[in-house]
Amino acid sequence: MVVTLGQLAAQLGAELHGDANVEVSRVANLETAQPGEISFLSDSKYRTFLETTGASAVLVKAADLAACRTNALVVADPYVGFARTAQLLDTTPAPASAGIHPSAVVADDVVLGQNVAIGANSVIESGVVLGDGVVIGAGCFVGKASRIGDRSRLWANVTLYHNVRMGTDCLVQSGAVIGSDGFGYANQRGEWVKIPQLGGVSIGNRVEIGASTTIDRGAIDDTLIADNVIIDNQCQIAHNVEIGYGTAIAGATVMAGSTKIGKYCIIGGASVFNGHIQVCDQVTITGMAMVMRSITEPGLYSSGIPAQSNKEWRKVAARVMHIDDMHKRLAKLERLLQEREQ
Q1: Which residue in the list 17, 101, 162, 239 is annotated as catalytic?
Q2: Which CATH architecture has domain 3-88?
Q3: Which of 219, 257, 279, 280 could form a disulfide with 238 if both were Cys (CB 3.0 to 4.6 A apart)?
Q4: Rounded to whole angstroms, how far apart are CA atoms 263 and 261?
Q5: What positions does the domain UDP-3-O-[3-hydroxymyristoyl] glucosamine N-acyltransferase non-repeat region occupy (predicted)?
Q6: Which helix (H) or strand (E) holds 80?
């Protein structure tokens, strides 16, 4: 893909300073960019590279324009501009070529939209509906009565169990499993009795799901993922979790059953959520947090101990073991002070 700066400015709604006929074909790092490439400046600590960059053009804010020694496209948010430009110049191949591969197994009653692509060795079971432009990568499994909306894409070896509903323009990375059984069991005198998971999974539009992430089906009602949600790699989303519009979840996060996450939340990597709690809208959780109770006020929340030298950590751990004793001694001292003051 090659675009001129004039075409790119029109696409981005940018203000062009320079030659509209210059062509770019790739995005690149500001420090290492070469002619034919376009870069961006979103962090002021890299501003010095504006004077030396070899890029044919740079996406900048108006405040940084004077420091730019090459063609510039002025935008309100250069990082968003970079994302839009990268989409235009994207060279990522499709998960599968056009049409249905001869080795794919597609049930007779599957409803196929226009321009559907199904890769080698994929299995599409009875009652499935695939919308226009859906792409199914090699080795995928789509279970009975599942539905995938227009232009959604599954990379290789994705598994969708039965009765999974996915909206339009979704992207699922390799190895993800959607609709597996939730962890539901009753205990009868030490023996585990499985509870059939009779719900499904309902995924909205423009949702992206990372590699090897698992989203369990609901026990009775569906597990719900709203529009515009992004979930990173190797996350575990348990049965009947609800995730609100525009929330972002970083890798290795674990959510226990029936957790409800609000809109526009940002969840740091390796965070853990207790089951049956609620997190309100616009909450940011920093990485490796353990969320044990509901959060009812927007804001920034953290837990966990940052990395430190082993020697320092051993001292802290040793003191933590004596917190209860220290609390009792402090309470005793407070009582003595109160008695003296009286």
Answers
A1: 239
A2: 3-Layer(aba) Sandwich (3.40)
A3: 257
A4: 7
A5: 21-88
A6: helix 78-88
